[in-house]
Write a structure and sequence with these properties.
Layout (H helix, E strand, L loop, with lengths): L15 H20 L3 E2 L5 E3 H4 L4 H6 L3 E3 L10 H6 L2 H8 E5 L4 H10 L8 E10 L11 E10 L5 H17 L3 E7 H10 L6 H8 L2 H4 L1 H10 L4 H11 L5 H11 L4 H15 L7 E4 L13 E7 L8 E6 L13 E7 H11 L4 H4 L4 E3 L4 H16 L4 E3 L6 H11 L3 E4 L2 H6 L2 E5 L5 E4 L1 H8 L5
Parallel strand pairs: 1-5, 7-8, 12-13, 12-14
Antiparallel strand pairs: 2-4, 3-4, 5-6, 6-11, 7-9, 9-10, 10-11, 14-15, 15-16
Helix pairs in contact: 1-7, 1-15, 8-14, 13-14
Length: 455
Amino acid sequence: MAQKPSIPKGTRDFSPVEMAKRNYIFGTIKGVYALYGFQQIETPAMENLSTLMGKYGEEGDKLLFKILNSGDFLHGMTADEVANTSTLKLAAKFCEKGLRYDLTVPFARYVVQHREELALPFKRYQIQPVWRADRPQKGRYREFYQCDADVVGSDSLLNEVELMQIVDTVFTRFGVRVCIKINNRKILTGIAEMIGQADKIVDITVTIDKLDKIGLEAVNAELAEDGIPAEAIEKLQPIINLSGTNAEKLATMKEVLKGSEVGLKGVEETEYILSKLTDLNNEIELDLTLARGLNYYTGAIFEVKALDVQIGSITGGGRYDNLTGIFGMPGLSGVGISFGADRIFDVLNQLDLYPKEAVNATQLLFVNFGEAEADFCLQVLKKVRAAGVRAEIYPDAAKMKKQMSYANAKGIPFVAIVGENELAEQKINLKNMTTGEQQMVTAEELVGLFNPKRS
């Protein structure tokens, strides 16, 4: 018996209806990016591992999908060497390439490689799949799309302001209520200094970033496991639990961090960004537990949560001053955001927020009664398609019931019927599949019903 086909865990097939929904998501995001002057690029699905490794922290490196070298990847190694070499060292020998983990590091590589061709500041957007060897669960996939926008070559905080406006505009267009959470890695660095654990900043931020997922007690336990003294953990508690308005939180942090120059700089940057974002459609909140575990963030960091659906972050990003330095171009500042298209897909599904016109592909189906009728329908089809109407003809002269079932299955809202009587009058019997109403129209009138400007 043939083996039943399947796909890897953490991946998905998408039906025509689902693809229509995804294209609506991508189209909406692309449209907003273009409004703000961003240009599209693409990079390869696989990068050299030397490009990817060491850019996402130790946890991120473990989630990289590595690609075996083609040909005899064991060439030159004895059986003993293979048996007694660690998995990581073997991977380094067997794999020179890997699937991209995100779009930001490949973008940094692109900027360095094409520096002479770019006018700075360079504003790019990129919508492509990424891969992570993560444990699949609700809202978390091993293959998923990111929709990134980044600005490099400018230190201005107006870039952060505009990126938050983009987030607000996109989710307003989707009709999804969200909370935009903002923090600053400089604030977190200042906090680490004030509790006497400046050298543990990476451990602290990676652990604090898990607060929503594992809870305060587990976070404190993990901090202790990372070697953070109990006294320092105790000092963190009022900061982790800080509440109040954004202004009240900033005022508190100015007092807490008055002995940290870098911490106060983070407060100043956050205060500036928030001062420019007073007229958003969605709420924006200073969240001091937001850490964004990736090592390359150096300034403002963002995360977006849907308010009406239980799901993880649906957008994230931040400022990264040092990323291109690892590729030989130090000092080039950047800031970016990434929309999680797959999670947004799930959110819009749960809230039933897709416009009907975005999901229904074919608008008009022509019934096929035979050769003569089909010839007439083909002439009319040419006219309606020229007017921008999405239309098709059933390919076979099948029974009427079968053709109508096809229209219903595809959610086609209108059916054009041309039988002997209609052919004699050179007209079309147009049926509304929702109301059942029918009317006789000429080809020109048919075009006018769908596209009045072209009639």
